[in-house]
Each structure stands twice: as structure tokens, then as C-alpha cells.
Amino acid sequence: MNEKRKGWRIVARLYVAVWQLLRGGAAILLLVLFAPLLIAGYYGIFNTKNTPDTDKVRQTVDPRVVCGTLSNTTIEIPREYVVFWPEYEGKSSWEKGFTSNIKGCDAKLLSLYMSVSWPDFQPLSINKHLVNNSKFSGLEITISPVIRKTDNMQFFLDNLLKPGKTTSDSYHYKDYDESLGLFYIDSNDAIVPEVMNRYYWAENNGSVSVVFECYRTRQSTDIYSCAGYFLMRDFDYLVKLRFPSDELRHWREIVEKTRAFISSKVNK
Fold first, then answer.
1. What residue segments make up the domains of the chain, in order of their start?
2. pTM value?
3. Where are the membrane-spanning stretches (predicted)?
């Protein structure tokens, strides 16, 4: 009987020893896994510092919308339209500590990048198309403040053509596409000189109102996508559009509806 009790005591001690070992191992494992997170939480993942201003902003910013001032106007857009994150004044989004930038309707926006469906201007996820490797059929819209006080986009067209060498020596040899109602000229791509992109623009009494940069590849002379640029002088915005090349025929409607969409989000 004593031998039996002695055996049970040994088993119990082994059980306790194993249990303590497992508890200790689990504690060490949890410490290894969560210690970096605890340290990051204490110091701030991006080395951000809590200040009265940032604390106040965190309390007042509505996560459902993106709001800020752009060229002395306040623009407010539902968050689902905005791709990635808005660029506020301060540190770039690629720098540590950018999350400490002041946010909200009183904060200064440097640019705003959105994605919408065409033609109904509903929120559209670029990430969804990247994951599914499907063709993007919407509009990418980027708004930034314009510095030059002019309605003429000629300076912008000149800057686009400057890095490359045009197929003609002068704009006097520009061509006109009657189906689009746009002038155009071919020019070498600034990054890949052997590729000839096509540049379209609309003129009104000698003034350039909108510019389109349409891209080709090394393998083909076909245009696969276009970027459009125009000014919204009422708000001092420079607007950039990116869309599939087959939508260029609708350029007037695209520009008009984009203007209306942006205007509806501005609190004058």
C-alpha cells in the first residue's frame, strides 16, 4: 500500500513539474511574441509623439471622411473614395512619424488621390483589381493645389514635351483628330526614350484648356492608358485623371463630370 502511495506521489510530482514547465514555456513564448508589440505601442510604431494638438485631432477627426484645406478651400470626401491615405502638410507618407501630421478640416492637404467608377462616380477599390489582376475600368483622380495663376495649360504641355524630342520641330506641324476634337503630337517618353507617347490637347482662342498624355509600350504602338490634366480655377486646383485609353473619346464628359464631382465635395 505504501509503495502504491509512493508511486502516486511520484506521478503527481512529475505532473506538477511538467505543468510548471509548460506554463513557463508558454510565458516565454508569449513574451517573445508580444514584447515587440508592447514596446512599439509604448514608443509609437512610427516614432510619433503625443502632443496636445495630435491628441485633439485624434478626438475630433471622423474616420468615415477625409477632410482638409486645399488652396484655401475646405474639401470633405467619404473615406471609401480615397486611395491609401491623404497627404497632409508635414512629413511625407514615406517618412517615419508621418502619422503625427495634423489631420482634419483645418489641416492643410498637399494632395488627394481618389478612385471612382465610371460613369457613375461611386467608390472603386484599386486594390481589388490588383489582387484579381483584372482590368481597371474606372477613373483615378488626383487633386493638388496649383501655384501658377493662369487659365492656360500651355506651360504644362510644354513641360511634358520638354524632356523628349517631338516628331516635329514646331507646334505649327501639330495634327488634329477630328473625331476627338483634339490637337496632338507624338513625343519620346521622358523615362523610356525609345517609346513614343502621344500628347493631345484642346485649344480655345489659342489657350490650352486640357492636356492628355497617352502611353505606349516598347512592344506596341497601341495606346493603353491616358492621363488628363486640367485646372479648376474657382478653387485653384490642378486635377489629374488616369483612365483606360478607350475612354478618351468621352473626354469632354469625363472632365465635366469630374469637375461637378469635386465641386460637390468643396465647402466654399
1. 1-50, 65-165+173-267
2. 0.73
3. 21-45
